[in-house]
Design goal:
With 344 residues, the chain is mainly beta. The chain is built from two helices and 29 strands.
Length: 344
């Protein structure tokens, strides 16, 4: 019994010493992490700021899955956070131990008692830049602007004599506004880059509006009438109730040709010994047009051209009798034209 008592005393002494010398683990049970975007208008994607909201542990290092120069808005990247704490970490953690703003928890593992690796996912965000140019194409009523990197849509606000008349969202960097430009007036628009869907707008923040150049519409012809569909086609009814027939008519700035029965014509039309092409809406096309895979030049007055034409200064093109452009061939056994129809 005497020796047994000494043994019990020795064990208790060792246990007490161990309790005094062992560190107190598991004090860090809840970790709050904030990921704050660093966004500047139109600039490249930047690495976010990551911080902890309490002082129980610190961020010793951040390791990203790829270099920030290779990030794309909307494409997830991984971040490995190396956390350290003098108070020690638990042997394991799960998503319930973390409160994360601006990202999502993936997993974590304890490297040693005082080091914890936390893996997070982050979606890079960017504020879209401004288009460098916003103006009008040669075709009346067609707005066109330079594309903005990463943009998947554009919002446009159209103005007539300074008064707002229409807002549109489009996915291309051009849009036909002619149906809203039916009065003789000065027209401008504002355009900004944006994301097409709600999901895209989370990581593609809308850019700033850019003012377009001004375009002045004059001599629009008929603007007060209306189009009507009939069993045999489409007619234009003027304000006085009459309809054009067997003639050209300028309507809202575009030329249309109506047959003897007053129906709007489309496609190739031979009129007064010249060929014209009217698109599916009946509008007369002008200048360069690709029709059924072949290129034609219709002139500024819409007349189909044949023979040699200087399409741009110093560059010549040859057009056959049917109006189609010659490519990859030799004309008159001496003039070679390339795959783009050019002879220089």
């Amino acid at each position: 019994m005497k020796h047994f008592g000494k043994l019990i005393g020795l064990i208790c002494g060792l246990t007490a010493a161990a309790m005094i010398s062992a560190p107190a683990y598991a004090d860090v049970s809840r970790i709050s992490i904030e990921i704050e975007d660093v966004i500047n208008n139109g600039e490249e994607i930047r690495e976010p700021d990551i911080s902890l909201s309490d002082g129980n542990c610190q961020i010793a290092d951040i390791q990203w899955s790829k270099d920030v120069s290779k990030w794309k808005p909307g494409s997830k990247v991984m971040a490995n956070l190396i956390l350290t704490s003098d108070e020690g970490f638990q042997s394991s953690y799960n998503a319930g131990n973390f409160r994360i703003q601006g990202g999502n928890y993936s997993n974590s593992s304890r490297t040693d008692n005082n080091t914890l690796k936390v893996r997070l996912t982050y979606i890079p965000r960017i504020q879209l830049g401004e288009t460098e140019k916003a103006g009008w194409s040669s075709e009346k009523g067609h707005a066109v602007w330079k594309k903005v990197p990463f943009a998947t849509a554009y919002q446009l606000r159209l103005y007539r004599d300074g008064e707002w008349i229409k807002t549109l969202t489009v996915t291309a960097n051009t849009v036909d506004l002619s149906e809203y430009m039916t009065q003789e007036a000065s027209y401008t628009y504002q355009v900004r880059a944006m994301g097409e869907t709600d999901a895209e707008r989370y990581y593609l923040l809308s850019g700033e509006y850019v003012d377009s150049e001004e375009t002045l519409l004059e001599d629009l012809g008929q603007t007060e009438g209306s189009w009507r569909n009939y069993q045999n086609g489409v007619k234009y009814i003027r304000q006085d109730g009459s309809s054009p027939a067997g003639q050209w008519e300028k309507i809202a700035g575009y030329w249309y040709y109506f047959d003897v029965n007053g129906y709007r014509t489309t496609g190739w039309q031979a009129i007064d010994n010249s060929w014209y092409y009217l698109n599916r809406d009946g509008k007369m096309e002008i200048e360069w047009q690709q029709i059924e895979g072949k290129w034609y030049y219709l002139g500024t007055d819409g007349r189909m051209q044949t023979g040699w034409i200087q399409g741009t200064p110093g560059i010549w093109y040859y057009f056959y009798e049917d109006g189609s452009m010659a490519v990859n061939t030799v004309i008159d056994d001496q003039y070679a034209v390339d795959e783009n129809g050019r002879w220089k």
